[in-house]
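Thread title: Can someone regenerate the structure for this chain?

I was given the following input by a collaborator and told the matching structure tokens would be attached. They weren't. Posting the sequence so someone can regenerate them.
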Amino acid sequence: MTREPVTTHPAPVEGAVAAPATIELGLISHTNVGKTTLARTLLREDIGEVGDRAHVTEVAERHLLIESPHGDRLMLWDTPGFGDSARLLKRLKQSENPLGWILTQVWDRFTDRPFWCSQQALRNAREDSHVILYVVNAGEEPASAAYVEAEMQILGWIGKPIVLLLNQLGPPRDSERVQADVAQWRAHLASFPLVRAVLPFDAFARCWVQEGVLLAHVQPLLPPELQPAYARLREAWRVRNLEVFQRSMEALARQLAVVATDRELLAPRDLREKARAWLASLLPGGRSDDVELQRAQRSLASRLDAQIRAATEELVRLHGLVGRATEEVLSGMGREFAVRRPADADKASVVGGVLSGALGGLAADLAAGGLTFGAGALLGGVLGAFGARGLAQAYNLARGAEQGSVRWSAEFLNARFAAALVRYLAVAHFGRGRGEFVAGAAPRHWEEKIAAATSRRRDALEDVWAEASEGASAEHVAERLAPLIASAAREVLIELYPESADVFAPLPAAHSRDGSQPGA
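Best answer:
Regenerated them for you:
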């Protein structure tokens, strides 16, 4: 595959914009380290072939990563993996003209294909790449991966700057553990000056903000004549991803607003039913089987399920992924923020049946006086119901209220706010190379940071929930929620990835749909 040459131009006249440029990144690794999987994540499309065998990629393939409005292009090369690195290094050292020798070994394509694939990787690095992205398996100890040192020496013949990417890190981990891996690899390769940066970048679990960090590390490695074009490309990447971020926050705000304003009216009961409920509530351990209340609760629960599924599917689509928000996913989402305390017997009880792990915490909002009994955020596999329903019914009877309604409690809505942030992080970290989106358990350090971010916004959230309970429209509640959930998500992402703070710098007004900062 031929490379389109980068054309340089004389210094432009003052006020003129230079002609568009094309910048090439070469993605290189030892064979079967996950290079093509990482390329799929970066490109957000299923390119190439992946498999658990050596030399799945046999020829270099060139793909568009970013294009600026000015016409600049950032290209990514997915290259064949290095195979017998030690043999290739030995052959290079024996040749009087190593690079010329590489160009002459056409017959190896037919007689020794793995060796030929290694030559193709080297040839791409030499001819097509401005910067090398070299991928290693972080699950290996640096000292035991002997091929890495040989391949560093091979790339030394080329002389292109290298950014080392630590792949196969496993599920997202806290910063201290990740930085320990980075420091270990940096120390191991300290004798290779062409390695300019070592970054964690897992094909399965990287977050999109880490792509911005990678692009920032590449910029100083490019020649001066390419700097203006690359700056435009980085800004194009930032505009694109902040647009996705803003739309994601709006989707979550709409979902929460619909849930917060939802309610189900209770059909009036006759005098016999009211008397039976009153007597049952006064007996020790007494409870009545209020079929109407259970119906109302189930109706709310069913609509909540639909809202969560729709919002999750929209997040998946916005992030260039595939998959569906199945019951399994929703159940997993609920468990991630299970409250670790026993339910208050006066406030919560089981109404029967497992509906979804995302459900729980109903409150009775009585028409007479607006008395509300919170149920708590019981985000487990069983629907948490309003346990003091006998007392609520007695209050209705005593006040003469003919009809009540059931809605979600403020406590539960706070938990749904946190759960929405968990779902966002799950999607934002899901690499395209992993296949269809399926949410796993949230890491503990995510939970802690999200809980803290939610707590800092508790007063503002309580005001929003109060407006919802007083009859505010879902559109109004969504407008109030959008900046709250966006600021919380931005805060959590920066805490998880401090180097990504620049990604969230305000955009020029021309790039924002309403002139405001996305996620502000």
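The first strand starts at residue 22 and ends at 29.
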